[in-house]
Design goal:
This protein has one domain (about 30-215): Double Stranded RNA Binding Domain (2-Layer Sandwich), CATH 3.30.160.150. The protein is about 45% helix and about 25% strand. The chain has helices at about 10-30, 55-65, 65-85, 90-105, 185-190, 195-215, and strands at about 30-35, 40-45, 110-115, 125-140, 145-160, 170-175. Strands 1, 2, 3, 4, 5 and 6 form a six-stranded mixed beta sheet that branches.
Length: about 220
């Protein structure tokens, strides 16, 4: 004897379970954020330039602002050349980018990296961002004690719509310094501490940007 066909109640229950499973899968699927990077982050040390004050202004008036700026830049370049060999060559990419990728994933966003200059088309992602790296390194943060801190500068634009030249939002500037301070002499005396300080501010900046993006375009 053939078994009876499933009852209407059984079909309804099965359909409901299928709908619930489909909805659950849709909720679990991460949203995507497409990110482009335009430009390159440059390492810098801002020491003498940060000390320009009233005395420096007077000196600039005597010898010429251009000459004074050149002297300050040369002195900072010497300090930069002394510190830079102890900085990981791909620090900005390996630390900032990786931290941001991980932070976005924690917020339920899958990162899609787009080649610079490529067209960002609608439907490729749920959110869009363009990063404009500028500088990172060390700078004087207290002109009295001459204490320095690691810092980072960059700009970013982000939107729920593809970002193009015709509809590109105004760039938002970001500038952060690490809470930990150190003298230049201490940095040179303990070069092993240079990279951790750089990593600290890069990670802080990446998390700050992630939180701001998710809050503003969620």
């Amino acid at each position: 004897m053939l078994s009876s066909l499933p009852s209407l109640r059984t079909w309804v229950a099965a359909a409901a379970m299928l709908l619930l499973a489909t909805a659950s899968f849709a909720q679990d699927a991460p949203r995507k954020i497409a990110i482009q990077i335009e430009g390159k982050a440059e390492f810098d040390v801002i020491y003498r330039r940060a000390l320009t004050n009233a005395t420096g202004a007077v000196l600039g008036g005597l010898i010429g602002a251009g000459i004074q700026a050149g002297i300050e830049s040369n002195e900072d370049a010497e300090k930069r050349d002394a510190i830079y060999p102890h900085v990981a060559q791909q620090a900005w990419r390996d630390v900032f980018i990786q931290t941001m990728t991980d932070s976005l994933a924690e917020k339920g966003l899958e990162t899609v990296w787009i080649d610079a200059g490529a067209e960002l088309k609608a439907g490729n992602a749920d959110m869009y961002m363009v990063l404009y790296p500028a500088k990172f390194g060390f700078r004087i943060v207290d002109t009295t004690s001459l204490m320095m801190a690691s810092f980072i500068e960059f700009e970013a634009v982000y939107s729920t719509k593809p970002i193009s030249g015709k509809s590109k939002p105004v760039k938002e500037p970001f500038y952060l310094t690490d809470k930990s301070q150190v003298s230049y002499d201490q940095l040179i005396a303990d070069p092993a501490g240079i990279d951790p300080r750089i990593e600290s501010v890069l990670k802080m900046a990446a998390r700050r940007l992630t939180n701001k993006v998710v809050y503003n375009i969620k």
